[in-house]
Amino acid sequence: MQFSPIVATILLTVSSPALVLYYSSPILAQAPTPTAEERITEAIMLNNQGEGIVYQDLVGLDGLQVGLELFQQSLAIFKQYGAKAGEANSLVNIGYVYLRKGEYLKALDFLQSALDIRRKLNDKENEWIPLSYIAEVYLNLGDYQKSLDFYQPALKVLQELKAANPQGYNYTTSETILLADIGSVYFRTGKYSQALEFYQQSLTIQKAKGDKSGTAQTLNNIGVVYLNLGNYAQALDSYQQGLKNLQECCSTFYGTQAAIFNNISGAYFSLGQYQKSLEFAEKSTNIYKKLGTGEYKSTDEQAIKLLYNALGQNAQALQQVTNRANVGDAFGKDSFQFQGAALNLNNIGQIYFSLGKYDEALKLYQQALDIYKQNNYKLGLAVAFNNIGRVYQNLGKYNQALEFNQQALANYREVGDRTGEGVTISNLGQVYQKQNQYDKALGLYQQAVAIHREVEDKISEAATLKFLGDVLAAQNQPPLAIAFYKQSVNLTETIRQSLRSVPTDVQKSYTETVSERYRRLADLLLQQNRPAEAQQVLDLLKIQEVSDYIGNRGTTTPKVTNRNTQRGSSATVAVTPEKLPLKPQEEQISQKYSAIQDQAIALGKELTTLRKIPPQTRTATQEKRLAELVKLEQTTNAEFNKFIKSPSVVALVQQLSATSGQENLNLRQLNSLRDNLRQLNQKAVLLYPLVLDDRLELVIVSADAPPIHRTVPVKAAELNQTINEFRDAILVPYKNSKTPANKLYNWLIKPIENDLKQAEAKTIIYAPDGKLRYVPLAALYDGQNWLVQKFVINNITSASLTKLVNQPPTPSNALAAAFTKGEYTVAVGQRQEMFSGLEFAKAEVENLAKILPGSKVILDKDFNPNATIPQMNDYKIVHLATHGKLVNGSPEDSFIVFGDGEHATLRDIENWSLSNVDLVVLSACQTGLGEKSANGQEILGLGYQIQLAGAKATMASLWAVSDGGTQALMNEFYAALKAGKVTKAEALQKAQIALLTGKNSEFNHPYYWSAFILIGNGL
After folding, report:
1. Pairing mode, strands 696-701 and 708-712
2. pTM reported for the whole predicted model
3. In 10 A of CB 635, how many CB atoms?
4. Which end of the chain is more exposed for a tag (fewer CB within 10 A), N or C?
């Protein structure tokens, strides 16, 4: 904690009223030799001179030494003449100097002496100052409880003074500082809820005062706490609010901007947004460079002070399991530049590490380590050692990885950072896991989970539970591995629910970052013949993929409503997914494991408390107990192995193995899904493919049989290559696409042919995975026929989001809009694209209007957002014959073009009202495999967003079909709908078969008829 020079000067004046009296006496000038009054006046001047040096901005060690000598001279004079108030004042100043120099025990001696004097003088007005500095000393010594023991009475005294004299000395400013300092202590001990409480109190006072700069600093601290709690949305919101306050009040507070940029960088890194993380890290770096060269000379004293405070309170420590920011570290005034520079090196190194650029990362980490060594900053050393250890681990240099992680662990323990300690122990577990030393890894993970739970580090806990599952799977203990994977996934779901209001590209990145946990769990469940549970895991992942891609701004529990007008009822399906249920045996295993963890947590807390006591002040009893606890902690390494081998757990695992494949688990979602399939009365089955690195898994759910799965021995690389070949062939009307289409059939359909036959399936409800979303299932070829000739096909985003209700539509009207002429350039993001009117679009919508009486046609400039969107909900069908582009990336990159050149992105669609609409048709959309990382989320995103706006289903093309082909298919589709007694999916099947088998061979190729897919409730 640091007080501003102005505050210090006022405090000194107020604390020594007698000295002021002596100083103002006219007798002083008349004395021929130095009198007591003159000597005391001299001491006051020496003291003030020292304060002018020590409390100035950017004071270095030389300045601190000069100030110390002046304070020592003044102290000697005050003691000589018994001027106790002055003596206390000088003692405080000397203690402060030693505090800033890092000589904490010396600081403690002087500050305690000052406190004793002020208490004897009953000097309540100034008692809180040495109390607060003593608290800061103990904070630096890592004795957090003692730090609180002094901070809390300091705050109490200050608040009493403020209550007695609200209009007097500016107690409010000091109160906010003390509240923040106490919050930082709680943060350092992992008590995030208490930390948040004190920061919120500080924020309330600052907002009431209109203190925007202080508000910015506290919002930054609050953001750091939220980040450590895994509440990324609230963290980013706090950071952005902090930046906004700075812009409104003090744009030259460069240091505070740099600190917040650093923390935003870490938040984006945690979410897998490496480019954004790098962007903010570089912004921060540029500020520190300019501060270092003196370019920002216009920075005033208050800005510099705030810079110190911001960096002193918000050092960000990037870790292996998660990027964790720290608040409350007490830095000297001369340390802000080294700290900022080192943070940036670590941040950017972390980004290079995640991109696989290990050499670049190692260079940056080493530079940060050198800076921390020069300044003997223990927490920074721990972070740098940890990061370097991770690089060596990924390079397969395990001895070096162990060495650096052990050094990190020692530093974390020395400063009492339990969160960092837990993360590092988990890192060590991973190093041993890489070397197949599973027993050692399990013991370390056991320790790590206990610490994660102790400090409420949910992010790290979810990751370490997944690592536990990995080891157990490697040890051929799948039932136990599944139990721990489920705990990891459920905890991950809790974290992801807090992401609802962050930018959608951030949500998507986080989903991709943790999706391996879901896929690994589903993989293992299928290996254990537990397809019912696997289906729920897959559904959970698909929900997150699509909702995270689109995002749900402005609502935390968005709903998709599907109407059933025949029955006069409505069904609402919540996006928020349920957690995965545990089998009874898994529940018992979890409870037994938690009991072990509770013991480990209690042990760890006692050990941490003793470690915080400086070695030189520990009693013999404390040293003995510390040794005992260290020994006990080491024995916990073997506890997990004892746990998994205990008779009770072995019996539970045997029960799980014996019941694999049996439905003794109450899956409400599965039962609801079966009811849906029965009510459809269309012989429908649900098909979930899961693309794994080494194979393809097919999960099939039918109305009257348990879920089943079939394993297909095709690797993801070969499957994706065939998808590319299929797309290359089908997009050219004269190319033969049957060969890749047949390969895909053999992988996706042939393995389940008998299952489909036994279920008497006529309809396939399809929830594709990954790049399979770019393939229309209708265009698979069995060697003689296309799949569309055998089955009705209906795509869905996920079963949980779709209420499937059988409602054969009666002839209805449509709003038919078309972009038929003109050329427009559409600017989206960083790109611009030219679009021309569609030649056949006018005939397409006019024919539609003839087929469905009561329809309305809108063309070109009349087809604009302002005129069109408000009319949509007046019609059962909304048909848009215009360009649409579905692009891998964020929802803002995908769009629909209106007839006047305006466009609507997928993000804009969320504001449309389509509650009365049965079907939205986009007849000229196109998608592309594009980037290597493309996985088709934009396709699901389109269907999901329109469904979210209220419409039952969406029909869209996966590529841009010729105008003539589109018109021909649409004519057949609407004619089938008008005939009645068919569903939307059946009408699409009839239209596709009509083109496929029609006399006009021009449209027989699947390029023309297979491009269109139906997403949502088309049944």
Report:
1. antiparallel
2. 0.58
3. 11
4. N
Q: Is 801 within 8 Å of 1019 (Cβ atoms)?
A: no
Distance CA(292)–CA(255), nearest Å, equals: 11
- Burial readout 489-528 (b: 16 or more C-beta within 10 A, e: otherwise): bbbbbebbebbbbbbbbbbbbbbbebbebbbbbbbbbbbb
State the DSSP H helix or E strand holding residue 325, giving kind and residue range, or none if neither. Answer: strand 323-325
Distance (Å, whole) CA 229 – CA 325: 11
For 67, what's the count of Cα atoms within 13 Å in the CB-facing half-sphere? 25
Closest CA to 660 of 566, 749, 528: 528
The DSSP bridge pattern shows strands 323-325 and 316-318 to be antiparallel
pLDDT digits (tens, 9 = 90+) for 569-618: 222 333 444 566 666 666 776 666 666 666 666 666 677 777 767 777 77
Using DSSP's 3-state secondary structure scheme, residue 366 falls into: helix
Q: Strands 877-886 and 814-818: what pairing?
A: parallel
CA dist 445 and 461 (Å) reads: 10
pLDDT digits 0-9 by tens, 522-536: 888 888 878 878 877
Backbone angles phi, psi at 765, to 5 degrees: -95, 115
Question: Strands 708-712 and 823-828: what pairing?
Answer: unpaired
Task: Please name the residue ranges forming H helices in 714-855.
Answer: 716-730, 738-748, 753-758, 841-851
H or E stretch covering 856 = strand 856-859
Place of tokens 């930054």: 220
DSSP state of 830: T
Main-chain phi, psi angles of 868, to 5 degrees: -90, -50
413 CB neighbour count, 10 Å cutoff? 20
Nearest to 690 by CA among 670, 674, 710: 710
CA gap 633, 655 in Å, rounded = 32
Map 549-583 to HEC letters: HHCCCCCCCCEEEEEECCCCEEEEEECCCCCCCCC
**How many helices and strands (H and E) does the chain possess?**
40, 19
Distance CA 755, CA 778 (A): 18
Q: Mind spelling out the 3-state secondary structure of 632-695?
A: HHHHHHHHHHHHHHCHHHHHHHHHHHHCCCCCCCCCHHHHHHHHHHHHHCCCEEEEEEEECCCC
| Pairwise CA distance, residues 702 & 996, whole Å | 29
pLDDT of residue 291: 55
Residue 877 has φ and ψ, to the nearest 5°, of -125, 135
- Cβ contact 129:92 at 8 Å: yes
Q: Cβ distance 558 to 948 under 8 Å?
A: yes
Instruction: Give per-residue burial for 438-453: e unless 16+ CB within 10 Å, then b.
Output: bebbbbbbbbbbbbbb
Q: At what angle do helices 378-394 and 418-434 cross, to 10 degrees?
A: 20
Which range has the worst mean pLDDT, 76-90, 130-144, 150-164, 500-514? 500-514
Q: Which long-range contacts (CB under 8 A, 24 or more apart) does 598-606 make?
A: 600/446, 600/447, 600/450, 600/636, 600/639, 601/450, 601/451, 601/453, 601/454, 603/629, 603/632, 603/633, 603/636, 604/418, 604/450, 604/451, 604/454, 604/633, 605/454
Q: How far apart are CA 41 and CA 253, in angstroms?
A: 38
Q: What would you report as the CA-atom Rg of the chain, rounded to the nearest whole angstrom?
A: 34
User: Other C-beta atoms within 10 Å of 60: how many?
Assistant: 10
Rounded to an integer, what distance in angstroms lies between the CA atom of residue 667 and that of residue 533?
Answer: 8
* Distance from C-alpha of 598 to C-alpha of 763, rounded to nearest angstrom: 52
Residue 922's pLDDT is what? 87
Side chain identity at residue 961, one-letter code: V
Phi, psi at 663, each rounded to 5° = -90, 70
571 phi and psi, to 5 degrees? -125, 130
* Nearest partner of 63 among 55, 54, 71, 72, judged by Cα: 54
